[in-house]
Amino acid sequence: MLFAVCSVLLFACLTLGGANGASNFPAELPRCHHGDTECIINVSHTLVRQYARTGYAPAAFPQVEPFLIKRFDISDGRSGSLSLKLNFRDVNVEGLSGVKFDRAVGFDSNPATSKFEMYGAFPKIILRGKYLADGRILILPIRGDGDADITLHNPKFSVKFKPATQVRNGRTYLSVDKLKVLVEPQKMNIRLTNLFNGDQTLGTNLNQFLNENWSDVWSELQPSVHVAIADVMKSILATLFKRFAYEDLFLED
């Protein structure tokens, strides 16, 4: 449901600046020194605001407003009150360009020992697309195949990344080793159409139940949501790391 919420955050911070003339990173982008977290936050805001609707191919930065997700799956098979499998497809995510980075940690010159952490929030994230649902809430079976409209209000996030490094021709290249994402909305609204084969009464009651108990629903689903977010972030970061050495992403100290 949410994996695009954080998919560009760490990416934006790692594409935070071109290096000097010896680098193949786009020279027209703003630049930061290693460990200058204030600069990293400011430039990350600039990058997202300026290129959110167009992307920036020379830096492998994707379009993020809206951010199209072709497919993702979330499931929770635990024995609690909620057991639900959700399959989403053709989902447009709106609101990523409104990100506000509050804090950055690390981004030092040695990526093998540096921390890479970002913290912040969004005013609102809206996800619209198709869904397929199968599961139960309490003793009520859930079936649905239709349109999904999900709004996350003031979601806070943290992203922590640990790379693996490899030196080739005197330059350091990264790959994703560990990546941890946490997202905590202050409120969540859910609207699913065509529940129970179009039964309006059951569908309305279930949507009402989901919204009145959104915190419990989120608590049940968030472990698989965070895994889904991390998987997409790994894929996006892999594109960046294949194209540029770590030295390319910063000004020389």
UniProtKB/TrEMBL annotation:
InterPro entries: Haemolymph_juvenile_hormone-bd, To_sf. The keyword Transport does not apply. Residues 1-21 form the signal peptide. Keywords: Biological rhythms, Signal. Pfam families: JHBP. It comes from the Eukaryota. GO terms for biological process: circadian rhythm. GO terms for cellular component: extracellular space. Belongs to the TO family. This is Protein takeout. It comes from Drosophila hydei. The lineage of its organism: Eukaryota, Metazoa, Ecdysozoa, Arthropoda, Hexapoda. The gene is LOC111598580.
